[in-house]
Structure formats: structure tokens, C-alpha cells
Amino acid sequence: MKERLRDLQIQASTSLDPHPADVFELYKEDLQRQIHEIFAPALQNSIFYKAL
Fold first, then answer.
1. H or E element: which one contains 7?
2. DSSP state, 45?
3. What pLDDT is stored for residue 50 in this prediction?
4. Which residues of 13-46 are buried (b: 16+ CB within 10 A; e: fewer)?
5. Could you say which DSSP state residue 19 is in?
6. Residue 21: predicted pLDDT
7. Mean pLDDT per 10-residue section of the chain, whose length is 52 residues
8. HSE of 13, CA atoms in CB hemisphere, 13 A
9. What is the pLDDT of residue 41?
10. Distance CA 10, CA 24 (A)
């Protein structure tokens, strides 16, 4: 059963088009910008930011 599920997982991952890793690479910069925008207010209010 374990081997069968592993084979199905491998088969499903190879049939993805585009592959999730490729999609991540395409949108990596955009995701980094969004994360920075979300956490920037918290960083500016932290004691570490004020110490710099």
C-alpha cells in the first residue's frame, strides 16, 4: 500500500503543468514584496528597528 501511494504521488507530481516549483520561481519576487509590506509596520514598531 505504501509503495502504491508513493507511485501515485510521483505520477501526480510529474503530471503537474506548470510544476509548483516553476510557479514559485515566477512569483518569488512578488511574494517577497507582499511579505515585506505585511510585516514592515511590525518591524518599524519593534525595539530592534529603533536601535538601528
1. helix 2-14
2. T
3. 66
4. eeeeeeeeeeeeeeeeeeeeeeeeeeeeeeeeee
5. -
6. 87
7. 91 82 92 92 77 60
8. 9
9. 86
10. 19
Q: Which residue type, as a one-letter code, is found at position 30?
A: D
Residue 52: what residue type? L
User: What's the half-sphere exposure (Cβ side, CA atoms, 13 Å) at 21?
Assistant: 2
pLDDT of residue 27: 95
Q: Which residue has the cell 510521483?
A: 10
Residue with cell 519593534: 46
pLDDT at 32: 94
One-letter identity of residue 33: R
The amino acid at residue 24 is F
